[in-house]
Amino acid sequence: MKHAFKRLILAVALTGAIGTAAALDPVVNWNPRTGDTWVDVRLGDINQYGSQYRAPFVNEMVRYYGAPRSLVDELLNTRRWTPGDVYYACSLARAAGRPCREVADAYDSDRGQGWGVIAKRMGIKPGSAEFHALKRGIVPTYDRWGRPIVLDADLRKDFPNHGKAKAKAKAKAAKSHDHAKAASKSKSTKAKASKSSGKAKSKGKPKG
Question: What does the pLDDT look like over 184-202, one tens digit per residue?
Answer without folding.
Answer: 565 666 656 566 655 555 5
